[in-house]
Amino acid sequence: xxxxxxxxxxxxxxxxxxxxxxxxxxxxxxxxxxxxxxxxxxxxxxxxxxxxxxxxxxxxxxxxxxxxxxxxxxxxxxxxxxxxxxxxxxxxxxxxxxxxxxxxxxxxxxxxxxxxxxxxxxxxxxxxxxxxxxxxxxxxxxxxxxxxxxxxxxxxxxxxxxxxxxxxxxxxxxxxxxxxxxxxxxxxxxxxxxxxxxxxxxxxxxxxxxxxxxxxxxxxxxxxxxxxxxxxxxxxxxxxxxxxxxxxxxxxxxxxxxxxxxxxxxxxxxxxxxxxxxxxxxxxxxxxxxxxxxxxxxxxxxxxxxxxxxxxxxxxx
Amino acid sequence: xxxxxxxxxxxxxxxxxxxxxxxxxxxxxxxxxxxxxxxxxxxxxxxxxxxxxxxxxxxxxxxxxxxxxxxxxxxxxxxxxxxxxxxxxxxxxxxxxxxxxxxxxxxxxxxxxxxxxxxxxxxxxxxxxxxxxxxxxxxxxxxxxxxxxxxxxxxxxxxxxxxxxxxxxxxxxxxxxxxxxxxxxxxxxxxxxxxxxxxxxxxxxxxxxxxxxxxxxxxxxxxxxxxxxxxxxxxxxxxxxxxxxxxxxxxxxxxxxxxxxxxxxxxxxxxxxxxxxxxxxxxxxxxxxxxxxxxxxxxxxxxxxxxxxxxxxx
Lengths: 317, 314
Description:
The complex is a heterodimer. Chain A has an eight-stranded mixed sheet, with no helix packed on it.
């Protein structure tokens, strides 16, 4: 008996075979492509660094050299001194730039960007690091740390300034008392001047009475000079102390302003990229939101740019 | 036979799915893509939305600032419609702030820009009527409220009629006021404007109370109260409670009147309206005095003074 065969299924096996082979080839190509993208086939080696704290460091975090991703963090562990040992898996082809004087540092890409480990390019005079070699880890000061440092320094100056001002303002203090004495003295001098004027007038009227009047004047001058001497002594003793204090405060202020300038210089180069990053992020977000606003079905629920509304009115108000 | 039926069913399902897919694709593509809006108009629109949002959250100064920005942009591109909207909004907010000269100036500027056939005219006329009412010029207020009623054919018709009815009531024309308020109630019920429906009921309650029809007034105020609770309008709830207190007092039930006023005090105090709370406390003091409880009256007056002092400090 002869089996009847449908002509449509005559090449079925060949077609199915070709389809399976094509699918396998596509899967393989995809695997190779993804592997290539993720550097699965690149030759790797390991580098390590030791950090005081593991805050902000995570497994899988990208490792970059001159802005290019060259590897990832593979392992984080503690050593005997409870220091954090971070082991990185790095593409071997970049090893020629990672030398004994290269450093690793923890950075953030932009304000809201991801954290990365940045390795600095080593100089040609130093040997390349071997597998599992140690890199020095540079602790970068964050903007917060810089601000805190500045705030501590400023606090110290402010305390000193406040103490000095309180010293000057103290009603029982030397400065206030000296000033009060000086005020009294000037009042006395004014009184003496008036008396001297009177004396001179009287002298023109009555030359014969000049003698006793001069005696009066001399007594008054003696009196003033007696009171002036301790006052000036007091000023002489206290003023240098006050000037010393002011000088110390000024030198302190100068030192702190220098420190602040240094801190600002450290922070300043990081600010423009941060701002640029933030600006780019905002522009990108704006583009995405604008795109979404024009997309169905969202566009039906979003008021158009020129659609205006009126504050709801109420007849009862 | 069975196989044939199955094949037909499959074909039907395939056709249905194809149509469904086509329908979905059509729905996605058919909606007209919005016309590109010039950046200046987009910015003005954004300020308008910011202003509305600020007023909704109670930040009136923020809202006024936003509408001013909107007006500035609109004027820079001679956008008459946009300017009119911004001016009406500014006039409304200035009126609510009690800045009546500014409100008048803004609404008069808006009226110069809005022709009678403009869809914005009813709202502009309504606001003009409200401002004239606040100023105390009843004839002018009635004129503008009448214009608003004539021009509005949409969902706000009930609101416009409510205003006209209130003005008529204030003029002492209770029959006309009742007729207008009845029309307003119908219009608001048809439009589903619950807040304005409560306003119509409250106004009808006021008219009934003025005619010494305590029972009708109480029923209407209670209906209004129920809607105001539904829409959660603190100020209006307090107003309904005080009106109910006045009706109870007119009926000689001082205890009940005190209870309503006490509730009004709580509502106003917690709703952030110390002046209303103080007014209700004064009513309570009067009622305590009337009921022969001078101590309680004194305590209510003391509480009122404390409340007003705290408000002044703020």
